[in-house]
Amino acid sequence: MDRNEATALLEEWIPNENLQRHCHMVASAMEAYARKLGKDTRTTENWWLAGLLHDLDWEKKPDEHPNYALDHIFPDTGLDEEVIEAIRAHAPERTGAEPESEIARYLYACDEISGFMHAVALMRPEGFRGMKAKSVTKKMKDKRFAANVNRDDIHKGAGLIETDLGDHIVFLAKVFENS
Protein backbone atom coordinates (compact mmCIF):
# COMPACT_ATOMS: atom_id res chain seq x y z
CA MET A 1 0.00 0.00 0.00
CA ASP A 2 1.42 3.38 -0.95
CA ARG A 3 0.72 6.80 0.57
CA ASN A 4 -1.98 7.70 -1.95
CA GLU A 5 -3.87 4.45 -1.34
CA ALA A 6 -3.52 4.85 2.43
CA THR A 7 -4.75 8.45 2.30
CA ALA A 8 -7.76 7.43 0.18
CA LEU A 9 -8.56 4.66 2.67
CA LEU A 10 -8.27 7.15 5.53
CA GLU A 11 -10.63 9.60 3.84
CA GLU A 12 -13.12 6.80 3.11
CA TRP A 13 -13.21 5.59 6.70
CA ILE A 14 -12.69 8.88 8.56
CA PRO A 15 -14.87 11.74 7.30
CA ASN A 16 -14.07 13.85 10.40
CA GLU A 17 -11.32 16.33 9.54
CA ASN A 18 -10.10 16.57 13.13
CA LEU A 19 -9.52 12.83 13.33
CA GLN A 20 -7.88 12.89 9.88
CA ARG A 21 -5.56 15.65 11.17
CA HIS A 22 -4.70 13.54 14.22
CA CYS A 23 -3.83 10.57 11.99
CA HIS A 24 -1.65 12.75 9.75
CA MET A 25 0.11 14.16 12.82
CA VAL A 26 0.87 10.68 14.14
CA ALA A 27 2.09 9.66 10.67
CA SER A 28 4.42 12.68 10.56
CA ALA A 29 5.70 11.88 14.05
CA MET A 30 6.33 8.26 13.13
CA GLU A 31 8.13 9.19 9.92
CA ALA A 32 10.30 11.72 11.76
CA TYR A 33 11.29 9.18 14.39
CA ALA A 34 12.05 6.56 11.73
CA ARG A 35 14.37 9.03 10.00
CA LYS A 36 15.96 10.03 13.31
CA LEU A 37 16.65 6.37 14.04
CA GLY A 38 18.18 5.86 10.58
CA LYS A 39 15.55 3.47 9.23
CA ASP A 40 15.62 2.53 5.55
CA THR A 41 13.03 3.82 3.09
CA ARG A 42 10.68 0.85 3.30
CA THR A 43 10.73 0.82 7.10
CA THR A 44 10.16 4.58 7.20
CA GLU A 45 7.14 4.15 4.93
CA ASN A 46 5.79 1.42 7.21
CA TRP A 47 6.15 3.68 10.23
CA TRP A 48 4.28 6.44 8.36
CA LEU A 49 1.52 3.99 7.35
CA ALA A 50 1.13 2.75 10.93
CA GLY A 51 0.71 6.33 12.10
CA LEU A 52 -1.75 7.25 9.39
CA LEU A 53 -3.96 4.17 9.70
CA HIS A 54 -3.86 3.47 13.44
CA ASP A 55 -7.34 4.92 14.12
CA LEU A 56 -8.92 3.93 10.79
CA ASP A 57 -12.06 2.36 12.29
CA TRP A 58 -12.42 4.74 15.26
CA GLU A 59 -15.11 6.95 13.75
CA LYS A 60 -17.33 4.30 12.14
CA LYS A 61 -16.74 1.39 14.55
CA PRO A 62 -15.67 2.97 17.88
CA ASP A 63 -16.79 0.02 20.00
CA GLU A 64 -14.79 -2.38 17.83
CA HIS A 65 -11.64 -0.23 17.44
CA PRO A 66 -9.02 -1.31 16.39
CA ASN A 67 -10.23 -4.88 15.98
CA TYR A 68 -12.66 -4.11 13.17
CA ALA A 69 -9.89 -2.72 10.97
CA LEU A 70 -7.53 -5.52 11.98
CA ASP A 71 -10.07 -8.20 11.06
CA HIS A 72 -12.01 -6.67 8.15
CA ILE A 73 -9.99 -3.92 6.46
CA PHE A 74 -6.26 -4.52 6.77
CA PRO A 75 -6.13 -8.17 5.59
CA ASP A 76 -6.89 -7.07 2.00
CA THR A 77 -4.56 -4.06 1.88
CA GLY A 78 -1.15 -5.65 1.50
CA LEU A 79 0.13 -3.87 4.61
CA ASP A 80 3.24 -5.43 6.09
CA GLU A 81 2.61 -7.49 9.20
CA GLU A 82 4.74 -5.13 11.32
CA VAL A 83 2.31 -2.29 10.53
CA ILE A 84 -0.71 -4.40 11.44
CA GLU A 85 0.90 -5.60 14.67
CA ALA A 86 1.86 -2.04 15.65
CA ILE A 87 -1.74 -0.92 15.13
CA ARG A 88 -2.94 -3.89 17.18
CA ALA A 89 -0.58 -2.96 20.03
CA HIS A 90 -1.48 0.74 20.13
CA ALA A 91 -4.67 -0.22 22.00
CA PRO A 92 -3.56 -3.01 24.36
CA GLU A 93 -6.62 -2.62 26.58
CA ARG A 94 -8.80 -3.55 23.58
CA THR A 95 -6.61 -6.16 21.88
CA GLY A 96 -4.49 -7.72 24.60
CA ALA A 97 -1.37 -7.04 22.51
CA GLU A 98 1.33 -5.00 24.22
CA PRO A 99 3.60 -2.67 22.21
CA GLU A 100 6.78 -4.75 22.11
CA SER A 101 8.29 -4.15 18.66
CA GLU A 102 10.09 -0.89 18.02
CA ILE A 103 7.44 0.36 15.58
CA ALA A 104 4.68 -0.51 18.08
CA ARG A 105 6.43 1.29 20.95
CA TYR A 106 6.88 4.43 18.87
CA LEU A 107 3.27 4.35 17.64
CA TYR A 108 2.07 4.09 21.23
CA ALA A 109 4.41 6.93 22.22
CA CYS A 110 3.24 9.24 19.43
CA ASP A 111 -0.52 8.67 19.61
CA GLU A 112 -1.89 10.31 22.78
CA ILE A 113 0.80 12.97 22.98
CA SER A 114 -0.03 14.15 19.44
CA GLY A 115 -3.64 14.80 20.35
CA PHE A 116 -2.66 16.55 23.55
CA MET A 117 -0.06 18.74 21.87
CA HIS A 118 -2.57 19.71 19.20
CA ALA A 119 -4.94 20.88 21.94
CA VAL A 120 -2.11 22.93 23.50
CA ALA A 121 -1.20 24.42 20.09
CA LEU A 122 -4.79 25.57 19.59
CA MET A 123 -4.45 27.66 22.77
CA ARG A 124 -1.30 29.39 21.55
CA PRO A 125 -1.24 32.19 18.95
CA GLU A 126 1.98 30.71 17.53
CA GLY A 127 0.67 27.15 17.47
CA PHE A 128 3.55 24.67 17.62
CA ARG A 129 6.21 27.30 16.89
CA GLY A 130 8.42 27.71 19.93
CA MET A 131 6.36 25.28 22.00
CA LYS A 132 8.26 24.32 25.13
CA ALA A 133 7.98 21.06 27.02
CA LYS A 134 7.17 22.91 30.23
CA SER A 135 4.05 24.51 28.74
CA VAL A 136 2.79 21.07 27.67
CA THR A 137 3.60 19.31 30.93
CA LYS A 138 1.97 22.15 32.88
CA LYS A 139 -1.24 21.67 30.87
CA MET A 140 -1.04 17.94 31.55
CA LYS A 141 -1.58 18.68 35.25
CA ASP A 142 -4.95 20.30 34.47
CA LYS A 143 -7.23 17.25 34.24
CA ARG A 144 -10.00 19.36 32.67
CA PHE A 145 -7.81 20.37 29.74
CA ALA A 146 -8.10 17.83 26.91
CA ALA A 147 -9.80 15.59 29.45
CA ASN A 148 -10.20 12.71 26.98
CA VAL A 149 -6.41 12.32 26.62
CA ASN A 150 -4.93 9.70 28.93
CA ARG A 151 -1.93 11.24 30.70
CA ASP A 152 -0.73 7.83 31.91
CA ASP A 153 -0.50 6.68 28.28
CA ILE A 154 1.62 9.74 27.47
CA HIS A 155 4.08 8.92 30.26
CA LYS A 156 4.06 5.21 29.39
CA GLY A 157 4.78 6.05 25.75
CA ALA A 158 7.85 8.12 26.58
CA GLY A 159 9.06 5.26 28.76
CA LEU A 160 8.50 2.72 25.99
CA ILE A 161 10.84 4.63 23.69
CA GLU A 162 13.26 5.35 26.54
CA THR A 163 13.01 9.08 25.98
CA ASP A 164 12.58 11.89 28.46
CA LEU A 165 9.04 13.24 28.09
CA GLY A 166 10.35 16.78 27.67
CA ASP A 167 12.68 15.73 24.86
CA HIS A 168 9.83 13.81 23.22
CA ILE A 169 7.61 16.92 23.35
CA VAL A 170 10.30 19.23 21.94
CA PHE A 171 11.06 16.80 19.10
CA LEU A 172 7.37 16.45 18.20
CA ALA A 173 6.73 20.20 18.42
CA LYS A 174 9.39 20.72 15.73
CA VAL A 175 7.89 17.94 13.61
CA PHE A 176 4.38 19.38 13.89
CA GLU A 177 5.55 22.94 13.30
CA ASN A 178 7.01 21.83 9.97
CA SER A 179 4.16 19.51 8.93
Word description of this protein:
The protein has 179 residues and is an all-alpha fold. It has one domain (3-177): Orthogonal Bundle (Hypothetical protein af1432), CATH 1.10.3210. The chain contains 10 helices and no strands. It has helices spanning 3-13, 17-36, 41-53, 67-73, 81-89, 92-95, 102-122, 133-140, 151-160, 165-177. The mean pLDDT is 97.
Structural class: mainly alpha
Gyration radius, rounded:
15 Å
Order of helices and strands: HHHHHHHHHH
**How many extended strands?**
0
- Total DSSP helices: 10
- The CATH architecture would be Orthogonal Bundle
Strand content: under 5%
Helix content: 55-70%
Question: How many discrete structural domains?
Answer: 1
Instruction: Characterize the main sheet.
Output: none
Q: Which class in CATH terms?
A: Mainly Alpha
Provide the residue-averaged pLDDT.
97
Which spans of ≥5 residues are poorly predicted at pLDDT below 50? Answer: none
Overall geometry comes to globular
How is the CATH topology named? Answer: Hypothetical protein af1432
Cα-to-Cα separation, first versus last residue? 22 Å
Indicate the topology.
Blueprint: H1 3-13, H2 17-36, H3 41-53, H4 67-73, H5 81-89, H6 92-95, H7 102-122, H8 133-140, H9 151-160, H10 165-177
